[in-house]
Amino acid sequence: MKKILFPLLLTFVFAVPAFSQMMDKPMKDCNECNLLKTGMNHMNRMGDMMGMCLANADKIGLTDEQVQKITPIHREMQKKQARFKADLKIAEIEQMEIMEVKDFDIDKASSGVKKIADIKTVHHLDMLKSMKEVRSVLTDEQFNKMKKMMHTKEGLEKPAKAKKHKR
User: Fold this and answer.
1) Which one is the CATH code of 62-157: 1.20.120, 3.40.50, 3.30.565, 2.60.40?
2) CA 52 to CA 148: how far, in whole Å?
3) pLDDT one-digit tens code per residue, 158-167
């Protein structure tokens, strides 16, 4: 019973503040919600974009110099992603510990929610900076090719199957 009730309680605690802010807006007109969803999906795809960019260097027309500039940015981004996932998981576990007791401390719980939000915000800003760095390495033509490939997903090699770039 506790295994079902506790996640349900967590869902309720995290969902109520979001719903309370949106009560005056119809869902179909909630541009903030759509922007947030799009932004979150975009953030999750950033690492994929860089990996695919490297895996498809020949199709995009990357030079050896560009690959050498993008590769360390991508590796650093992967490290940050791993740290983010670990830090987020730890913060979520700490939040659960706070809320395990029947009469939990609302100030501690609020602090935990803010900590989780801060972890996500810092991570998203780090990813944006990395994305900006990579995009500054690409020419307009390469960026447009990459963007087109990402949207169509035609002929893209996944990063795990990446071949050594030879030029």
Assistant:
1) 1.20.120
2) 12
3) 555 444 554 4
